Amino acid sequence: MGDWWYRNIVEPGKLPLLLALGSFVLTFVITRVITRLIRAGKGPFRNVSTGGVHVHHVVPGVLLTVAGGFGAVASGRSGVGPMVCAVIFGMGVGLVLDEFALILHLDDVYWTEEGRKSVEVVVVTAAMVVLLLGGFLPFGVNGVDDDETQGRGGVALTVAVNFFFALLALTKGKARTAIFGIVIPFVALVGAIRLARPGSPWAKRFYRSRPRARARARLRAFHHDRRWTGLSRRVQDAIGGRPDQEPARVPERR
């Protein structure tokens, strides 16, 4: 275990990245726990306001991200400085991305359906960092033989091909498939070869003059959504909390 840790984490210089990932995920989890307690009116936590303005936690998140990023640049590559800055940076990113939907919409949509985007972005970010730890940085280790070098080259090529398939799935409107396909190659391949979702960039470009393909895409999307949307929402609710129910709109009388 110690030899694996040194060769795969310490020697390639991935320890700061691992610390940033850990602090990022932990900060997001703690933040969601606190915000859900505030929402339920439990515990000692309260929203922070100053001068009648609600200070969202994206504000200290931005400050921590800036401090961690510039601190990492200034501290060099050796010593404990980069690791401390990595932890600070991960904490800042966790706070910022937890309110990604607020930044996107420029509105307080934290507990709305639009607020689900924050959870999705956090999952994407965590998956990408895990990929960086496991595959995108297989280089930079001294003292490897030719066989190991070729093996790492094969890993890098596999990752590049898999990333291409994931990107193709994304253009077909299959964001979740692309996300999980980054880690699981078979999922990316399936998403890349199957029909695109209606309204996706791929469908708009290649199904424009193919009415049968458009009809098949709509039918498949309908059956897929009916089967998986409920499960997906339950997972998102378990991670980030259930959004507020929007009041039903009363039709205007004419």
UniProtKB/TrEMBL annotation:
Spans annotated as Disordered: 233-254
Keywords: Membrane, Transmembrane, Transmembrane helix
Biased composition (Basic and acidic residues): 243-254
Transmembrane annotation, as ranges: 15-34, 55-74, 80-106, 118-141, 153-170, 177-196
Superkingdom of source: Bacteria
Protein name as catalogued: Integral membrane protein
Organism phylogeny: Bacteria, Bacillati, Actinomycetota, Actinomycetes, Kitasatosporales
